[in-house]
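Side project, low priority. Logging it here so it doesn't get lost.
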Amino acid sequence: MNNEVWRFIDTGNSSPSFNMALDEALLDWHSEGKFPPVIRFYGWNPPTLSVGYFQNVDKEIDMEAVKAHGLGFVRRPTGGRGVLHEHELTYSVIVSEAHPEMPKSVTEAYRVISEGILKGFHHLGLEAYFAVPRTPEERDALKNPRSAVCFDAPSWYELVVEGRKVAGSAQTRQKGVILQHGSILLDLDEDKLFSLFKYSNDRVKERMKKAFKDKAVAINAISSRRVSLEEAKDAFYKGFAEGLNIELESYQLTEEELAYVQKLASERYESDEWNFKR
């Protein structure tokens, strides 16, 4: 039997507003039956801090530091915490909730989609596995995250290597469609990352930064050789095809589709009302 064919789009480095607008547009088009399921790879120009849909920017983010580092800033349509998108491969997966291979439970659907990421790490020679919080304390910690930093702790079925988180993902479900997107870290500037958030005092900041080193790690900090972005793309392209048992068919957006995305980007993801009013 032939594998199902999904579309594959690599948009390279784009603005923060374009990146989020295209993920939303793909969700819309899939819900309207105009687009099959799709996997997308992308990067960020400039490097960007994205915050989760429910985060309070005034309380949690140091916008002066964001500006001082010359970073972009955008609110995601998905939940989760703050992510510095710099030295990474970003992916998104758009597929119907009604797809026969998608479990109804959010957690289990997350595991199925993340099989593609797991296989990608294996292609890079890294022994990644799924984090499964086992104790009541670990499960409670997921409900009450103390940090505004996304990579501070693995959630259900997050990808870890040697006990440390190597990929962070978030999911939303709208119009009968699942959108899951996330970051696969190649390198990480921890000083820059921790400068972007507000803390009650420097002692708390240093304690969290120290703890972070035991919880999160980038591919090139643990790989026996340096992994380039192109190698990572190749590994995760194969990983998604194997993990989801699909074939990927490259696709270029039409002029009309690009115009729709750019309109959505300027109207929503570049507006202060969307990015700051939560």
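Brief comment: Confidence is low (pLDDT under 50) at residues 141-154.
Revisit when time allows.
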